[in-house]
Amino acid sequence: MPFTDLAGALATLERLLLPGSCLVCQAITGPRDPLVCDLCRSRWHRLPEPRCLRCAQPRRFDLPCRLCREWPESLAWVRSGVWLDDSARRAVHALKYEGWWRVADAMAESMAAEVAGSGEWILAPIPLTESKSRRRGYNQAAKLTEALARRLGWSWRDDLLVRLREGGTQTALTPQARAANVAEAFKGTATADGLRVLVVDDVFTTGATLTAAVQALDTAGARAVAGVTFARALEPLAGPHD
Q: CA 208 to CA 179: how far, in whole Å?
């Protein structure tokens, strides 16, 4: 079969397999992206200004930021594309639990807007354990990383971080418990030595996971480490951010 015919057949098959409505609002979608409609993407809210220069948390008044004050010095900064409201949460759920990995393309658009002017980094996804990756079928952070790399034209690697253990769900844990849950959960590999690494994950709540990953990369010799997520919890559990 000629290549053009094969490409057309694959495109037709994709249209049949993909949902006919937006994964977020269930409205019928157009040809640009059948997974998330333009209206839903326009409703994803960026974090407002003014923000903390380091963690990007919106600030009230002119007081020191309390969210990132105890972060390790090796974590340069963290950015998040949108607030984790109901619409963004639905996209995360579709990516993470329902097998719709192509939704990462739409999610990466807002992430790219936050980091495009920061110089070029090597992108690295937060890893899963092998058993969890097999159960899920893929690593959602890796899908986000791949989509972000395409948008920015940057390189990405999945061999810079290794997950040593799975700490279980963090949803109902306090900030202190979250930190303990991921303590020493990651190991940076020798391939990170001397690199500027931007760690990618789906959701930022307290920063415990990113902090643990950054410390592992710093120990492995990374020259600089920062982080980016698609969404940020509306009320971070780390305490007041003013």
A: 5
134 & 162 share domain? yes
| pLDDT tens for each residue of 182-231 | 667 899 999 999 999 999 999 999 899 999 999 999 999 999 999 999 99
Q: How many CB atoms lie within 10 A of CB 176?
A: 12
Asked whether residue 178 is domain-assigned, the answer is yes
Q: Check whether residue 10 and residue 70 sit in a common domain.
A: no
Expressed as residue numbers, the domain containing 116 is: 45-232
Q: What pairing do the DSSP bridges indicate for beta strands 186-188 and 161-163? A: antiparallel
Q: Do 51 and 100 belong together in one domain?
A: yes
pLDDT (tens digit per residue) in 27-46: 866 545 568 888 899 899 99
| Six-digit token string for 65 | 């930021």
8 and 126 both lie in a single domain: no
User: 3-class SS at 231?
Assistant: strand
- Please, what is the Cα angle at 127 between 236 and 18, to 5 degrees? 85
What backbone phi and psi angles, to 5 degrees, belong to 230? -70, -50
Q: How many domains does the chain have?
A: 2
Nearest Cα to 234, choosing from 44, 72, 74? 44
pTM for this predicted structure:
0.83
Q: Is the residue at 213 inside a domain?
A: yes
